[in-house]
């Protein structure tokens, strides 16, 4: 049985409601060609997805495909002053290579393996369910191609 898992990497833009400013740590070099910058950004994004998977879940994997990118915002009321956070999250499907889910970091309460159908029904947000359905469709289409 192949073990695949979905991992996301995100970029956050914080907007300070009081000062009306945007804070981001991704300032591109001014003289870089757009396509070179895009390639570098894609590579960094993939490396970040693999690193975050390892850190947050205790699992390592190789990237199979990019699933999709979503955008959303929320209000961080625990910040002083309160800020609105805009997130851009890119999800990747990874093929499990090694690791132990008990070795996850403290950002994550629990790491478990789920059958894909259970993962879809367990996911809280509609956008997460959509991402998991896309992963399921990709797996099914590519499993058929292998046989």
Write up this protein.
The protein is of the alpha+beta class and 147 residues long. The protein has one domain. Helix content is 35%, strand content 35%. The chain is built from 3 helices and 4 strands, in the order ββαββαα. The protein has helices spanning 34-57, 116-122, 126-146; strands at 4-16, 21-23, 59-76, 83-99. A 4-stranded antiparallel β-sheet has the order 2-1-4-3, covered by helices on one side. A hairpin with a 4-residue loop joins strand 1 (4-16) and strand 2. The longest helix has 24 residues, at 34-57. It starts with a strand and ends with a helix.
Please tell me what the overall shape is.
globular
User: Gyration radius, to the nearest Å?
Assistant: 17 Å
Low-confidence residue ranges: 11-30
Helix content: 25-40%
Q: Measure the end-to-end span.
A: 14 Å
